[in-house]
Amino acid sequence: MNQYHLDHLRELESESIFILREVAAQFENPVLMFSGGKDSILMVHLAQKAFFPAKIPFPLLHIDTGHNFPETIRFRDELVERTGARLIVGHVDDAIASGLVTEEKGFNASRNGLQTAVLLDSLEKGKFDAALGGARRDEEKARAKERFFSHRDEFGQWDPKNQRPELWNLFNGKKNMGEHFRVFPISNWTELDVWQYLAVENVPLPSLYFAHEREVFERDGTLLAVTPIIQRRENEVPKKMMVRCRTIGDMTCTGVWASKAQTTEDIISEVATTRMTERGGRTDDKRSETSMEDRKKTGYF
Amino acid sequence: MSNNSELLRFTTAGSVDDGKSTLIGRLLYDSKSIFQDQLEAVESATLRRGEEGVNLALLTDGLKSEREQGITIDVAYRYFSTPKRKFIIADTPGHIQYTRNMVTGASTANVALVLVDARNGIVEQTRRHAIIASLLQIPHLVFCINKMDLVDFDQVRYEEIKEELEGFAAKLNIKDVAFIPMSALNGDNVVERSLAMQWYGGSTLLYYLENVHIGSDYNLIDARFPVQHVIRPNTDEYHDYRGYAGRIAGGIFRKGDEVTLLPSGFKSKIAKIDTIDGELEEAFPPQSITILLENDLDLSRGDMIVRENNQPRVTQDLELMVCWFDAEKSLKAGGKYAIRHTTQEARCVIKEIRYKLDINSLHRNQEDLEINANDIARIFVRTTKPLFVDGYAKNRITGSVIIIDEGTNNTVGAGMVR
C-alpha cells in the first residue's frame, strides 16, 4: 500500500460525503430520514463532515410510530441539541387519529406498514424533493439492487425494473414536478464497516445497542421486549436476560439478541463472528420472501 | 478484519449456465460471508421451487421477477471481506441484451472476472465480456477457466485455452491479464488450492484478489479538482469562509500549491485544505475535501482547479465511445440531450455517428448506423459550453460523461472521451 491510498473506511467515507454534497447541489429541498438507529446516526455524522464548518443544510425527518423505545427518543433529542440540526417529526398517532391510516390488530400488530403513509405524507407536506436514507445494500436482497439516487414517481413508488443506470460517479437527479428521489449515501457500507467506523470516530450511540438486562419473551425464534404495546400469548412467558438491539426500529418488530457486548469493540467482534444477518431479528421482513421489495415499491424507506 | 484494509471493487458477468453464481456463492461461502438465516432462506426457497440442493443464484437474484425467471436482470452488489481487503462485487447479467448493466458494473471496477467454461473454451460471451472490460479500462482482467472438473483437470486443455485467450487479449487494451484454472463447484483454486491440479503453480482466485496491486489505479499525476459545492457558513465564527468542496479526480494537491482555475484561467494559491478533522498538508484521489484559496475569486460548481502546466482539454467538441441504454428511442445524429461531466451539466447535440462497434468481434460497422439499446458506437458531440476533459484512458473520472433524455429525464447513454 503506498502513501497515497485510503483504507476501506476512509474510501467509504469519502464516497458518502461526495453523495451528500451532490444532493445539496442537485436538489432544492432535501431532508435526511432519521430513525435513531446507528445507520442514521452515521448519516448525520457524515453530513456534518460533508458541510463543515457550515451546519447540515437540510432538516432531519423522524417518523415516530409512537412505539419507539424511550431511549431512542431521548437520544434523538440529545443529538439534535448537539448538532444544531433542525428536526421534523411525523407522528403515526396523528395519522391514526385523522384517519389517514388504520391501526393493525392482533398479536402481530405492527405500525411498521403505517410508517410508509406517514412518511409519504410528511415528504409531500414539506415539499421535499430528496429524502436521504441510511439503507445499505448488504441488509436485504431487494436493497442490494438499489441505486444511490433512486427515483420515485408522484405516488412515491419504486420501479425496480426501470432504474436509471449509475456509472462512475455521475448521478442523475433530474425529475418532474411532484416526483422525488430517495438517496442512499451509505449503500456500500456493511454492518461491520458501520461499527468499525463508529468506533474509530468515537460517535455517541444509544444505550440500546449495548448489552443490558431486559424482560423479554420469545416468538417464532425471535426475542421481543416485554412492553404494554405487544399482546402476549399465554405460552409466551417473560424472562430476564442480558440483551442488545442490532437494529433499532419499532418495539413491536425489533428483535433483541442475547449478548454480553458492553463496548463498541465487543460489538465489532460479535458482528464479525455472527452467523445471522442483522435484519434476521426483524419480523417485518419475514412476512414473505419479497416483503422488503413489496414495501419498497409502495414507498417504504 | 482490520481497520486499514483496502477496498477492491470487481465485476463479474455471466449468464445462466457458466457457473458465475456458483463462483460468487463459493467466494462468499468459503470466506464465511453468507449468514445462516440467508442460507436457510435460500434452502427453503429452493425446496419450494421443487429444486434440489441449494440454488446459490437465489442469493444474488433479489428481485421478484428475477427469481421468477431465474435470471439476473440488474446489477446486484455483494460484499465480503477477508483480513486483507474488503470486496465489493458488481454482479451483472452476461447476455448481450444486458450490455448496459455490464457497462454499469464495469465503470467503477478495479478487476474484471471473465468466466470461461473449460469444455467450450472461448465463446462469443467470453469475447464480449473481455471487450467491455477493455473499453471501460478496467485495469486488471482475470480469465477464470472454470469447470476444470469436467475436463478431468487436464493441464493440456487449460494451456490450450490460455494460449487462445492470450492471442485474443493481445488485441485488447488491458494492462494486466491473469489466468486461473478452477472448479467453482468443488472449490478448486477459488479459496483453497486445488489438490487435483498440482501442475498449476499460480495463485488461487482469492489470493489474487487479496494481493493484486491496485495502488496505481487512480491517476496521481494530473491534478484535477472539480468544484462540487461551495461552502459558506455565514456565521460569526466563519464570517469570510469560502470553501470549495469536492472529491479529487486526479493528482495530488498540496497546501501552498499554485493553481489555475477553469474556465476563468485566473491563478491563485491553495491557502488551506480543510476537513472537520483538521487541516491536511496534501490530498489525493478519491478524497473528499474542501479547498480554500488565497484570494477571493469567482468559482462555483462545475468549475475546476488544476495546475498551470498540466491542464485538461477545454472544449465543446467531444469524440466519444458511447454505450446506448434507451430501449424506446435510438441514438440519432442531430438529437439534443443533457450531458453531465464531473460536476458540470450542459446540453449537447449529436453531430455525427462514425461507426457502430460489434462487441463480439471489435468490427467497426459504418453501414448500419442505427444505434439501439445496448449498442456501442463512436460519436461526435458538441456541447453548449466548454467541458474540461481528459481522455478516458488517462482518467476515468474526467474522461466520462452520461447523456440524459430531456423529455424523460432518464440516463440514456454513457460516454468515454477519446
Protein architecture, described:
The complex is a heterodimer of chains A (301) and B (418). Chain A is α/β, with parallel strands linked by helices. Chain A has 2 domains: 8-194 and 290-297, HUPs (Rossmann fold); 205-286, no CATH class. In chain A, 32% of the residues lie in helices and 16% in strands. In chain A, the strands form 2 sheets. A 6-stranded mixed beta sheet of chain A has the order 3-2-1-4-6-5, with helices on both faces. The termini of chain A are far apart. The model of chain A has no long low-confidence stretch (mean pLDDT 86). Chain B has 8 helices and 22 strands. In chain B, β18 and β19 form a beta hairpin. At the A-B interface, α1, α2 and α6 of A face α2, α4, β2, β3 and α5 of B.
Task: For the structure shown, list the relevant keywords.
heterodimer; A: 301 residues; alpha/beta; Rossmann fold; 4-stranded antiparallel β-sheet; globular; B: 418 residues; alpha+beta; Elongation Factor Tu (Ef-tu), domain 3; 7-stranded antiparallel β-sheet; 6-stranded mixed β-sheet; 18% helix; 33% strand
